[in-house]
Amino acid sequence: MKNNSVLIIGAGIGGLAVGIRLAAEGFRVRIIEKNMKPGGWLQPTRIGGITFPNAGSLVTMPEQLENLFKATGRTLSDYLTFEELSPIISFIFPEENEYTLYREAADTVMKNSLFGLQDQQGFTAYGKRSDRILDEYLPKFFSKPYRRSRNPFASEFGFRGLRPGRSGRSISERLFTSEELRSVHSFWSMFCGGAPSESSHFYRMIPSVMQRWGVLLAKGGSEALVSALEKLFLECGGEIQYNSEAEAIQVYNGSVTGVRLTDNSIRMADYVISDADTAFTCRSLIDSDRFRYATVEAAQMRKPGISLFIYHMAMHSQPKAKRPLIGFNVIMPPDMKQWEQELFTENRLPAHPLFYLHVPSLIDPSFVPQDKGALSVICPVPNIDSEVNWPQESYRFRDRILTELQQYFDDDLRSRLAGERYITPVMLEERFNSFKGAAWGFDPNQEKTEIPRLPNRCADIENLYLVGNGAHPGPFLPGVLQGAEIVHREIINSRKGN
Ligand SMILES: Cc1cc2nc3c(=O)[nH]c(=O)nc-3n(C[C@H](O)[C@H](O)[C@H](O)COP(=O)(O)OP(=O)(O)OC[C@H]3O[C@@H](n4cnc5c(N)ncnc54)[C@H](O)[C@@H]3O)c2cc1C
C-alpha cells in the first residue's frame, strides 16, 4: 500500500484504538508518547505495593472493545477477563441518606428508601425517556462523523422532540420531589465535567448505558486493559516510541507532512492523528502564525472544562467506615446548588467539596495487600484559569478533604496514613498537556450554543485527524473508542476518494 504512513500523537486509549485498526489494515503506524507508559489517564498511581486507579475503571458498552479485537481477527476474551459490577455507584448525602444505582432498575427502586410513590413514577418516566434518547442518539449522532458547523442538537438531527436544550436539573425538578433524587438525576453531566443546572439532560443516557449493557471491571484494572491494547497494537505491526513528545504538527500547502519532536527530530507521515488534548493540539501543536485555520479558531472559541484534585491515601490498615461503602462512591455536598454556584459560576473551590471516594480494595482485591488499607478522593475543582494558587493551596486543600472525609469514618484517618500523593490541575497540565488542566477537555456547558467537541477530521488541514476527549463524540471509553473507529473509517474513505 502506497502513502500509508501514520503518525499518532499520544498512546492514550484513543491513540491505541485507532492505531490498532489502521495497523491491522496494513498501514505503517507509529505512536509517539511523551510519558514512559501507554494509557494516559488510565495509568494508575502506585504507592508502595498499592494500586490506585485514576480513570477508566468502569467499562461500559463492552461491544466496542469486542469489535476492536474482532477487527484484527482476534477475540477480546483471549486478552482480558471482566467481571460485572453491581451495585454500580453509591451517592452519599449528609444526614445518612444515600442512593445506590444497581444494574436492574427494579433493584434501584426497591433497595433505595428515598423513593416515595410519586418519585417511583418519576423514576419510571425518567428511565423511559432516557432509553429513548439513547436509542436516537447512538445511530443519529454518536456513531456518525460530525462535520457541520451548526450545532446538531438544535434541530437537524431530529432531537427537537427530546429537547436537548433543557438541563438535567430542570428535568429532575419536574420528575422528583426528593431533593436527593433531584441531585442524583441531574448529576450525570458531572461525569464529563458539566454543571447540572446548565448541561443538557441528554447526559441521563449514562445510567441508561450502564443499565442496558452493564458495567464491567477488567481483571487487573484499567492498567490491564491498556496492556492488552498495547500488546494488540504491537502484534498488528505498530510501533510505539515512549518518552517522545511532539512539539509541532508540520503543515505544508494545507496538508500535514509530519511531526517535529521536542528533540528537534522530524517524523514524516502521510497521516497525523492527535490523541493529545484537542485544545492543546490546536492551540500549541498546529503552527497557525501564518495561516488562520478554522480548526484552530474553533478550538480557541471553546472554553476548557473543569479540572480535578486527586488525592490517594495509602494506609497502615483499612479504616472502618461509619456506613457501608462500595468501590465507587460520591460524597455529595450539603447544598448542591450552592456547590455548583461556587465551582462553576464563581470559579473557586467550593466551601464543602463534592468528591468521588474510591475504595481500591473493593474495586479489585489485588490492588491492596490484605494487611494494608487505601482510599482515593477525586474532587472536581476549577481549572487553571481560576485564582487558586495550587502550589500554595494544595496541602491546605488536602487537609480540608481529610477533615470532610473523617466524618464518614470511625477510625482516625490521619494516624493511619502510611503514604499519600496528590495531583493538582497544574500537574495534570504538565503530565498530559491538557489545556488549563481540564479533565474532560472542553466545557460541555457550551452544548446549547455550540457543539463542544471538534470533528474528527480537520476540514482545512488535509490528513490531520483528532481523537479523544475533545473530539467527536466526546469523552469516556465509549466516546473515545467510537471516535477512533470514525477516524479509521474517514481515512479509509478518503483513500477511496469519498
Ligand atoms: C477521574 C476520571 C475518571 C474516569 N473514569 C472513567 C471510567 O470509569 N470509564 C470510562 O469509560 N471513562 C472514564 N473517564 C474518561 C476516560 O478516562 C477518558 O475519556 C479517556 O481516558 C481519554 O483517553 P484519550 O486517549 O483521549 O486521552 P488521554 O488518556 O489523555 O491520552 C492522551 C495521551 O497523549 C499523550 N500526549 C499528550 N501530549 C503529547 C505530545 N505532545 N506528544 C506525545 N504524547 C502526548 C499523553 O501523555 C497521554 O498519554 C474518566 C475520566 C476521569 C478524568
Task: Provide tags for this entry.
498 residues, 19 strands, 33% helix, 15 helices, globular, single chain, alpha/beta, binds flavin-adenine dinucleotide, seven-stranded mixed beta sheet, five-stranded parallel beta sheet, FAD/NAD(P)-binding domain
Descriptive notes:
The protein is α/β, with parallel strands linked by helices and 498 residues long. The protein folds into three domains: 5-49 and 58-81 and 217-303 and 444-495, FAD/NAD(P)-binding domain, CATH 3.50.50.60; 102-214, no CATH class; 307-432, no CATH class. Helix content is 33%, strand content 18%. It has 15 helices and 19 strands. It has helices at 13-24, 63-70, 105-110, 117-142, 168-175, 179-185, 205-213, 221-235, 278-285, 294-301, 336-345, 360-363, 390-406, 425-432, 476-495; strands at 5-9, 28-32, 45-47, 50-52, 82-84, 89-92, 98-101, 216-218, 239-241, 246-252, 255-261, 266-268, 271-274, 307-315, 328-331, 355-358, 373-381, 417-423, 464-466. The strands form five sheets. The chain has a seven-stranded mixed sheet, sandwiched between helices. The protein is globular, with a radius of gyration of 22 Å. It starts with a strand and ends with a helix. The mean pLDDT is 94. Bound molecules: flavin-adenine dinucleotide (FAD). Flavin-adenine dinucleotide is lined by residues 9-15, 32-35, 40-42, 55-58, 60, 245-246, 275-276, 308, 378, 432-433, 439-440, 468-469, 475-477, 480. Flavin-adenine dinucleotide (FAD) binds next to helix 1 and helix 15.
